[in-house]
From TrEMBL:
Pfam families: Y_phosphatase2. PANTHER family: TYROSINE-PROTEIN PHOSPHATASE, TYROSINE-PROTEIN PHOSPHATASE DSP5. One of its GO terms (molecular function) is phosphatase activity. This is Uncharacterized protein. GO terms for cellular component: cytoplasm. Signal peptide: none annotated. InterPro entries: Prot-tyrosine_phosphatase-like, Siw14-like. It comes from the Eukaryota.
Amino acid sequence: HRTGCLVGCLRKLQNWCLSSVFEEYRHFAGLKSRDTDLKFMETFNVMCLRQCLYSIIYQYQGYGSKKRRLLYREENLQKLPQVSPI
């Protein structure tokens, strides 16, 4: 039950206790419940996902600008000024 695994990992990200995550998974997975899925959810590292989500943040280009877009960390680094040739 792959959707259940995804939801279980989301619940861990939401700081649910593991027993509640498993209970919800078993309830909705029914006969499709698998021990390997439970093991996957148990060992899923939410810190890795949190770091990824924290690295992608909404930032606004320019103070008071009406243009807003999602910037990635690489785009957020200041670029060296370009010198025009004489």
